[in-house]
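Sequence only, no structure available. Ideas?
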Amino acid sequence: MPETAISRRALFALFVALAAVWFSTLEVRKLIKPDEGRYAEIAREMAASGDWVTPRLNGIKYFEKPPLQYWMTAAAFQAFGEHHWTARLWTGLTGFCGVLLAYFAGRRLFGATAGLLAAAVLASSVMYFAMGHLNTLDMGLTFALQLAVSAFLLANRSTATPRAQRNWMLVAWAAAGLAILSKGLLALVLPGITLIAYSLTTRDFAPWRRLQVLPGLALLLTITAPWFVAVSLANPEFPHFFFVHEHFERFLSPGHRRTQPWWYFAPVLLAGALPWATMALHALVHTWRDGEGDEARAARFLALWSVLTFVFFSTSSSKLPSYVLPILPALALLTGAWLARVRAGTMQVHLLLVLLLALAALAASHLVTRRADAETTLEMMRGFQSWLIAGALGWTVATAAALLLARRGRVALAALALAAGGLAVALGLAVGHDRLSRSNSAYHIAAEIRSLVRPGVPFYSVRMYDQTLPFYLQRTVTLVEYSDEMGFGLQQEPGLAVPTLAQFEARWHSDADAFAVMEGETYESLRQQGLTMTIVARDTRRIIVRKP
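Reply:
I predicted one. Tokens follow.
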């Protein structure tokens, strides 16, 4: 597909269609626990209190992450109201902007066709689409890092003028500042180790002379320092917890119960990069072949970024699947560049492998109901299964169409067809997952009792904390014999919780009216001890009681 093969009008239509698909699904699902409820609630409390300096979760100081996404979501709540789509708006916007950036950077670095295909690869990668529709901090971080890396590479093109080099490097520094405000000092570590490794492996030290260190650092500090200073002055306990505990102790110790084997991210990344996983690996290996010039240097930097980010998180004692998300934009650029010049025969081999995977996914989707249990019922799983089958079927049909196009030598069109298949899978997972919402969200049970809970009436959360319940009740709850991630905040303000069941029972007896949420086992234990409670709502995970 040469540069003239697709008109600007057709290109615009493609991105409009993608935007319609991308943003239309932000509202359809209920917020799920834990992350979506947590980050929506922090933003809701920020908007309600007007305190934009000290983040609070359930009314308790919460310093695990910086505030950029809280600010953006709180601003969306104030502008448009508290909805599912506003809770996910920042994630959705940064995810979609990442696709546009992949097109822009890919076009500048590797050519027009490579840019278009890089955007298609990124938008349709299963993990990228999914994380672009979940209210977590990972997509905001990923976009900021993608912008920093892309700007760095654009600044180091041999054709860039001194002014363009300076401006792009300042964009990279500003993006690093936004990444720090998204998730911490990681935003400096990953680019730093990648640049060092790049220079050592390629003996190319020219990028160091273009870093614009002094104006860049000044810009970065202008973006980041005001909040860090303000929150430290308001909360003297913040610096040690955030900079020491969250960055070093968390990385080096398994205390967060996120320990996984060293190879954990390999299957996660391969599954997350579907339907492009084999092509991405091929493209990654291809970058180390002989080659000179801007394209070769950019490809090697992106390959090192991908490998070192993978290794960095693999050595951590704390592992979650979404940690490898920043790798996907780099892999998409490499894959787009590879697809722009790959032979049709090679493409067919990859598409045959993808077709086998699609058929396997279609067969496996019938087995999902075996995962049903008392909390996630068979009825829920059957609803989810229907969407999985539809998504896998769309993937299969699209891959078969891509294979036919590749046989005719239309490689770029085959890639676009495969992208449609990836979107079908992602949509099936995203939309269908809402069929499980009665198990993983408090939306339904909160709706049953919202009219009963008057302002000022105590609401206890006994030996548990459902991350989505406060958001849907639009109020905080009082923790009973529970702390978990709010433990540090409760050390600062212990009066915000009830430390023991005995104290809870005493308060329950003295309250004129009160509500409490708990799991079934806790309810049975308290009932057998003679605590008087009336069940007002229940689902497969939670029981909500009221004092008679």
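The beta strands are 56-57, 60-61, 459-462, 478-480, 497-498, 515-518, 534-538, 543-546.
Hope that gets you unstuck.
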